[in-house]
Automatic annotation (TrEMBL):
Ranges of biased composition (kind: Basic and acidic residues): 827-837
Keyword Coiled coil found: no
SMART domains: EAL, GGDEF, HAMP
Highest classification ranks of the organism: Bacteria, Pseudomonadati, Pseudomonadota, Alphaproteobacteria, Hyphomicrobiales
TM segment ranges: 194-215
Coiled coil stretches, renumbered: none
Name of protein: EAL domain-containing protein
HAMP domain segment(s): 217-271
Residues of the GGDEF domain: 435-568
Domain named EAL: residues: 577-827
The entry's keywords: Membrane, Transmembrane, Transmembrane helix
Length: 844
């Protein structure tokens, strides 16, 4: 065994691969020859099927068709007496006889066995017997004995036809069996070929795997080991073990021998270079500091070595970077070129300071062009020093920029909230004598509309212009800051207060209300300002900011576009508002809300047509609160949506107890239209109560359209699709009432109570009332007047064609039980048909 392995090891890899690939080629050729033989056999089967079996089946099919057609024509001949039809059938039968004869002749041409030819002869004999019997039946039929002819046809002719058809089916079955036998033989050949091919492929795969394993083990692995050993030798390792392939005399053995010779050569080379190792260490110190400028001086101040970065940083001429150059001359040239030391050792004293070993020092050198270098001097043992010079200009600029960004707004570059807070604390510490500091908190009016309608890029451009105008209004000691969004603040230092703050606030109001032009869009906004003055309104920054915010809240509540000073009463009001918010968040959970219902009556008959659901809050400490006292707060803190859903469900549940002809009106807040739940909430309330959607009226105000009229109209159409009615409430108080009526088919218009109140004393109010009544009639919308309190008002509204009225003259809002009692006590049949003679509901 061992001599054989040795002999194989001596054969070259080229010879081994040539033999292996030759065997593989022979295997491929043998497989190809076998495949060609099998394919030839399959081709013969295919040719046999195409030349004989398919024509045979086609001929048998024609025979079957002709036989069946002959039977159909014979049956028709037996059943008709029409001369023309008889002639046509006779002609058709003659053609079928010819077709059958042609098909029989075609079958004889491809029939290759005596059994097939005998079977065809039997069929033809039976067919002739059938045809003879059929002729007898025809003869009896033509001789005037139709019954005899019919008996022969049914008793003899039809059985003979079936006998012939049976023989034909036997021929078809025999031919089909021959085809199946041929297919089975072809399949057998295919399976045999497939088995042989799979065996050959398996053998080929096995051969490939064996060859791959052999190549990997005997060629690739040794080569990789040799390559890894060479890499380690190149990296400087001395103790490198080579693969144990030394007994091989092929190419691998040659590579191992060459690697061993290279390893021995490297060992000898390293021994020869040991004397120069001290010089290599010295220069390695300079190489390691290449990213920065490097210079090395001896104890006498003479330059030992420097890198190119050192000379380039200071613009030194080549002669001053040569070894032996004194530091004194280099330092003098640096001064001439405009470099000066701003911290650490002065350039003139560095040589003396570093002539003996000392501590590590750091100096900063600034160039005339604004660059800054950090110089680190490290003393060396035996005297002298090594200096590293780093350009830190970009780092210092980045640090300054980061510090600026941390305290300034990225959009406007104004100081941010953190810088504002620090400046405020400084201002409070240095306020002299009777001079006081003032804080002005600003909130832009109508800025959100700009963002929503024109987009944030336009809004950002507008904020930049606002910032510039604010900067133009303040003094040198003042500071303006952007706190976030559209909120700004100003610190006014010094000046006689409150006059100085009042003058500054008015100047800001005047400046910011002037039109702006941003990307071709002309914009008009305003601002509201809250002012707090130190120390009267607080001597701490947090207190002043809080009080200025409260003054700003008052300014926005008073109509915007104004400024307000902080007053102590604002703090109490704010505390009361916070308490109201806390109580309001718990009110729905505690079940403190209730609904009252105010009737809507027909102006012509006085009948109650429906009720408007009005929310009340039974506060545990403050008693019954009306909507105006808490609804605005609920809208601000986001509680109006769950409260509105509760009102819908509760009002619909109560309406389910009323007669089916009594409608329910529910007011919707504009905030509810921002919720994705509105349509679902209405649908759920209707489903839970079971009332018809045509009994529910949803009342909206014109302010709903101010934000995004397109989305509002889309939502109104979805609500309308539910079947509910939509009413325009407080009509006449908005900005584009007529445009809204044109955009959406409202079911009802409710004119605002302010016009009803002034209708007697103000001709303009009466004109509007008359116009709205005519408008409703022309648009097919019902008109309702709310706030009716006198008979004079009622009569005037009747004359103007209004449909319904609502107000204290009819009834105050009633609790649910009282509303049910009212419906039970007043039915249309019990009262006069005209409100001029009908008593009004008690104003209880």
């Amino acid at each position: 065994m061992q001599p054989l392995r040795s002999r194989l090891a001596g054969i070259t890899i080229r010879t081994k691969l040539t033999v292996g690939f030759g065997l593989a080629l022979v295997l491929v050729l043998l497989t190809g020859a076998f495949s060609v033989g099998q394919i030839s056999k399959l081709n013969r089967f295919a040719a046999d099927i195409t030349a004989r079996w398919l024509p045979e089946m086609e001929a048998l099919g024609d025979l079957r068709h002709a036989l069946a057609e002959h039977r159909i024509l014979a049956t028709g001949r037996m059943q008709t007496t029409n001369y023309r039809q008889l002639a046509a059938i006779v002609d058709a039968m003659r053609l079928v006889n010819d077709e059958l004869a042609v098909a029989a002749e075609a079958y004889l041409k491809v029939a290759h066995t005596q059994a097939e030819r005998d079977g065809l002869a039997t069929f033809m004999a039976r067919f002739d017997a059938y045809r003879d019997s059929l002729n007898q039946a025809f003869a009896r039929l033509d001789s005037g004995n139709p019954s005899d002819g019919q008996d022969i046809f049914e008793a003899e002719t039809i059985p003979l036809h079936e006998h012939a058809a049976s023989q034909l089916e036997e021929l078809v079955a025999a031919s089909r069996q021959e085809g199946l036998n041929a297919s089975a033989e072809a399949k057998r050949l295919y399976n045999t070929s497939l088995a042989v091919m799979l065996a050959v492929v398996g053998a080929g795969v096995a051969l490939v795997l064996v060859a791959t394993f052999w190549i990997s083990r005997r060629i690739s692995t040794p080569i990789l080991k040799i390559s890894a050993a060479m890499d380690r030798l190149s990296a400087g390792e001395n103790a490198v073990e080579l693969p144990e392939e030394g007994d091989r005399t092929d190419e691998i053995g040659t590579l191992v021998a060459a690697a061993a010779a290279y390893r021995d050569s490297l060992r000898r080379s390293r021994l020869l270079t040991a004397e120069t190792e001290a010089h290599r260490v010295r220069f390695a110190a300079a190489i390691d500091n290449m990213p920065v400028g490097l210079s090395m001086f001896d104890a006498k101040g003479a330059l030992i070595v420097s890198n190119g970065r050192y000379g380039a940083m200071y613009g030194l001429p080549p002669e001053l970077t040569e070894p032996g150059t004194l530091y004194r001359g280099i330092s003098s040239k640096q001064v001439d070129l405009g470099f000066r030391t701003t911290s650490g050792n002065a350039s003139g004293s560095k040589e003396a300071a570093r002539s003996v070993p000392g501590e590590r020092t750091v100096s900063l050198i600034e160039a005339a062009d604004g660059r800054t270098f950090s110089v680190v001097d490290q003393p060396m043992t035996g005297g002298g020093w090594v200096s590293t010079h780093e350009d830190i200009t970009d780092r210092r600029r980045d640090e300054a920029r980061i510090a600026h960004m941390a305290r300034h707004d990225a959009l406007t570059d104004l100081p941010n909230r953190a810088a504002f807070k620090d400046r405020l604390e400084e201002a409070l510490l240095v306020a002299p004598g009777n001079d006081h500091s003032a804080i002005l908190c600003l909130d832009l009016d109508r800025f959100k509309t700009v963002n929503d309608t024109l987009g944030h890029p336009i809004g950002d451009g507008l904020l930049k212009l606002v910032s510039r105008r604010l900067l133009s209004c303040i003094g040198e000691a003042d500071m303006v800051s952007r706190l976030g969004g559209d909120e700004f603040a100003i610190i006014q230092v010094g000046g006689k207060q409150p006059d100085a703050a009042r003058a500054l606030a008015q100047q800001v109001l005047d400046a910011l209300c002037e039109p702006y032009v941003v990307d071709g869009h002309q914009l008009v906004i305003g601002t509201s300002i809250g002012i707090a003055i130190a120390p009267g309104d607080g001597n701490r920054g947090e207190t002043l900011m809080k009080n200025a915010d409260m003054a700003l809240y008052r300014a926005k509540s008073d109509g915007k576009g104004v400024f307000r000073f902080f007053e102590p009463e604002m703090d109490a009001a704010m505390q009361q508002r916070r308490e109201l918010e806390l109580d309001l968040r718990m009110a729905l959970r505690r079940g403190e809300f209730e609904l009252h219902y105010q009737p809507l009556a027909s102006i012509s008959t006085g009948d109650i047509k429906g009720f408007e659901a009005l929310l009340r809050w039974q506060h545990p400490a403050r008693g019954l609160l009306l909507p105006g006292e808490f609804i605005p707060t609920a809208e601000e803190i986001g509680l109006i949506v769950p409260i509105g859903e509760w009102v819908l469900k509760e009002a619909c549940r109560e309406a389910a107890t009323w007669p089916d002809n009594i409608r329910l009106a529910v007011n919707l807040s504009p905030i509810q239209f921002r919720s994705d739940r509105l349509v679902d909430a209405v649908s759920e309330a209707l489903d839970a109560s079971g009332i018809g959607p045509d009994r529910l009226e949803l009342e909206i105000t014109e302010t709903l359209f101010l934000a995004d009229s397109d989305s509002v109209l889309a939502l109104l159409h979805r609500l309308k699709a539910l079947g509910v009615h939509i009413s325009m409430d407080d009509f006449g108080t908005g900005y584009s009432s007529l445009n809204y009526l044109r955009s959406f088919p409202f079911d009802k218009i409710k004119i605002d109570r302010s016009f009803i109140r002034d209708m007697v004393d103000c001709a303009g109010a009466m004109s509007i009332i008359r116009a709205v009544g005519g408008l409703g009639t022309s648009l097919g919308m019902q008109t309702v007047a709310e706030g009716v309190e006198t008979s004079v008002q009622l009569e005037s509204l009747r004359m103007e064609g209004y449909n319904e009225v609502q107000g204290f003259l009819i009834s105050r809002p009633l609790p649910a039980a009282a509303a049910r009692d009212l419906l039970a006590s007043r039915t249309p049949r019990e009262t006069a048909p005209d409100m001029r003679t009908r008593p009004y509901i008690s104003a209880c």
